[in-house]
Design brief:
elongated, transmembrane, 174 residues, 8 helices, membrane, mainly alpha
Length: 174
């Protein structure tokens, strides 16, 4: 069985992705505040509906995949492929994280842990568990992109066309 090791470029790109995730959240909050200050309640409602709907969809997929992964692994393999983050949380705690819309951040913590452990030492990972976790996270990001960003882009372009001017926050959202 081979050994898996993250390169420094992989770790840099992973952290860059986390930075862009935080920037996306900040821009979403700024757009909501901007619509509220402009008293554009229709656009505010649609934006919140898109953001909440997308988050619910991503969290639902994350929880369903987590449950599926858990049922597929037997106990011996599960203890071998669990991260430290997973070991400290019970199934009910993980479910609570998903209900509170924090499940995707739990997955990010798992990936960060696996990548840092892999970079510091050569982790024996014969099944490619770290790569599998990254693929799950990438698929969840893709689902979020198409369920949130595409409709949000249409909303922002419609607002720009109706107003005839480009607001800095609205422009940053596009």
């Amino acid at each position: 069985m081979g050994k898996f090791k993250f390169s420094p470029l992989d770790i840099f790109l992973m952290f860059l992705g986390l930075v862009f995730l935080v920037v996306d959240i900040v821009l979403d909050v700024l757009a909501v505040v901007n619509f509220y200050q402009e008293k554009s309640y229709g656009s505010l409602f649609l934006l919140i509906l898109l953001l909440v709907g997308s988050s619910l969809l991503v969290q639902a997929f994350s929880w369903l995949w987590y449950r599926y992964e858990e049922s597929e692994r037997d106990q011996e393999e599960k203890s071998m492929n669990q991260t430290k983050v997973e070991k400290y949380l019970s199934r009910s705690h993980i479910k609570l994280l998903h209900v509170l819309q924090l499940g995707i951040y739990f997955r990010h913590a798992d990936v960060v842990e696996m990548s840092l452990c892999s970079a510091c030492s050569q982790v024996n990972d014969p099944e490619g568990f770290a790569v599998y976790m990254i693929h799950d996270l990438s698929m969840l990001r893709l689902i979020e992109t198409f369920s949130e960003s595409a409709p949000q882009l249409v909303l922002m372009i419609t607002i720009i066309m109706q107003q005839g001017q480009l607001d800095p926050i609205t422009g940053a959202q596009c």
